[in-house]
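Hypothesis: this fold can be encoded by more than one sequence.
Test: take the C-alpha cells below, design a sequence, compare later.
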C-alpha cells in the first residue's frame, strides 16, 4: 500500500471513530513513516547517550534485499511489511503473509495494550501499517522464496495502470520485432518487467508483480511459478480487500479508550456510515498516489467522512525528518526523548523485538 492508505486512509479511519485530531495525526504519520524510515544509523547525543535507529523499510530494488543479506529480510521485510501468516507445512510456506491472519490480529491487540506509553501512538501507527499491508501483500513473503515467483505472462490487468512512457521507450527499441505478436504490450511487457523485478528484488515479496497489489482500484490476476500440480491462479480485486482493510482499521481504532476521543465527532452507525464514501474513493482509477490522497483530503475537508468540515489532513512526516537535524546537532538525551520521531524509533525497536522474539516464536516461527 502507498501513502493514500497508510497516511490518508489511516487518518480517516482513526478520525471517523472519534479520535482527536492530534491523535490521528500521530498514528497516521507513524503508519506512513514506516515506509520512509529506510536507513540504519546511530545518533550520538551531547551527554554521551546514543540511539540506534532501527530501519523499517528498504527500497524494493536494493542490494540488501538479496539472499546475501538474508538478515535484512528477516529484520525489516518480515516484521514490518509481510507479517507471516503461519499457514502451511514448510517454514517457507508458513512465512507467507496472509490477509487478516490470527498472528496479525494478535499483534494489533498487543500494540493497543501499550497505547498509554510515551511512544504508544507511534506503536499503534506501526501496527496499523503492518495490519493494513496484510490486505495487499497477502500471498507473498518477506524473504527471497520460490513461493514469491510468478509467471510473468500470466499477469492480466483489468485496468490500465502501466507506466506508458516506459513502455513507449521499450516499444521504440524493440517494437518492430513485436508488432506481429497479439497483445504484445500485455504479454511481452509484463513478462519482461516481472522477470526483471523478480531478479532485482531477489524474489522478495511481491516484486515479481511490481506495484500491482498497491493500487486500490485494480482488478487483476496472475499465476505463481510454484504450483505443485495446480495453477495457483490468484484473482485480485484490490478495492474489495482495501475496503476490508479500512473497516478493520476502523475497528482497531475504535478500541482506543475515551482518553483519546473527541466528543464532537459523530460515531453513530459505525463503519457503515462511511462505507459508501470510502468505497467511492478506493475505486478511483488513478495511478498517482498523491492524487488518490487528495481524494481522501477533499472528502475530509468537505465533511463527507466526518461530521466536521474543513478537516485538514496534515502528514507530520516532513516535520519529523526536520526534527532529526536537532538530534544530530548534539542535543541531550532527555531533550530528544520527547520528540515524536524519537518515540517512533522507540516504538519500531520495541515492535521488532516483540514480533521476532515473542510473537512469532510463540507460534513456532524462530527467525532471529
Amino acid at each position: 500500500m502507498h501513502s493514500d492508505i497508510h497516511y490518508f486512509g489511516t487518518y480517516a479511519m482513526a478520525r471517523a471513530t472519534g479520535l482527536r485530531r492530534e491523535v490521528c495525526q500521530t498514528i497516521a504519520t507513524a503508519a506512513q513513516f514506516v515506509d520512509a524510515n529506510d536507513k540504519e544509523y546511530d545518533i550520538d547525543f551531547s551527554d554521551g547517550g546514543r540511539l540506534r535507529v532501527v530501519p523499517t523499510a528498504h527500497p524494493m530494488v536494493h542490494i540488501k534485499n538479496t539472499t546475501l543479506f538474508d538478515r535484512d529480510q528477516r529484520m525489516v521485510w518480515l516484521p514490518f511489511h509481510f507479517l507471516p501468516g503461519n499457514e502451511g507445512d514448510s517454514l517457507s510456506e508458513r512465512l507467507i503473509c496472509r490477509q487478516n491472519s490470527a498472528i496479525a490480529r494478535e499483534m494489533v491487540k498487543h500494540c493497543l495494550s501499550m497505547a498509554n506509553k510515551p511512544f504508544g501512538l507511534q506503536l499503534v501507527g506501526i501496527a496499523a501499517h503492518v495490519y493494513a499491508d496484510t490486505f495487499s501483500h497477502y500471498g507473498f513473503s518477506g524473504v527471497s522464496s520460490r513461493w514469491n515467483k510468478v509467471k510473468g505472462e500470466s499477469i492480466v490487468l483489468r485496468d490500465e495502470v502501466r507506466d506508458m512512457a516506459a513502455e513507449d521507450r521499450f516499444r521504440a527499441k524493440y517494437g518492430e520485432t513485436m508488432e506481429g505478436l497479439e497483445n504484445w504490450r500485455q504479454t511481452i511487457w509484463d513478462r519482461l518487467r516481472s522477470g526483471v523485478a523478480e531478479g532485482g528484488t531477489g524474489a522478495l515479496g511481491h516484486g515479481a508483480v511490481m506495484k500491482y497489489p498497491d493500487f486500490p482500484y485494480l482488478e487483476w490476476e496472475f499465476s505463481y511459478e510454484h504450483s505443485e500440480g495446480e495453477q495457483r491462479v490468484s484473482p485480485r480485486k484490490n478495492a474489495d480487500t482495501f475496503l476490508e482493510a479500512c473497516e478493520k482499521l476502523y475497528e482497531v481504532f475504535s478500541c482506543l479508550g475515551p482518553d483519546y476521543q473527541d466528543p464532537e465527532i459523530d460515531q453513530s452507525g459505525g463503519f457503515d456510515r462511511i462505507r459508501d464514501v470510502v468505497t467511492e474513493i478506493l475505486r478511483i482509477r488513478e495511478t498517482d498516489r498523491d492524487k488518490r490522497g487528495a481524494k481522501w483530503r477533499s472528502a475530509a475537508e468537505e465533511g463527507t467522512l466526518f461530521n466536521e468540515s474543513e478537516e485538514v489532513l496534515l502528514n507530520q512526516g516532513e516535520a519529523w525528518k526536520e526534527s532529526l537535524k536537532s538530534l544530530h546537532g548534539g542535543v541531550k538525551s532527555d531533550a530528544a526523548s520527547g520528540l515524536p520521531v524519537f518515540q517512533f524509533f522507540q516504538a519500531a525497536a520495541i515492535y521488532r523485538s516483540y514480533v521476532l522474539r515473542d510473537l512469532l516464536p510463540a507460534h513456532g516461527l524462530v527467525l532471529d
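Residues 16 and 118 are 24 Å apart (CA to CA). The radius of gyration is 21 Å.
Hypothesis status: open.
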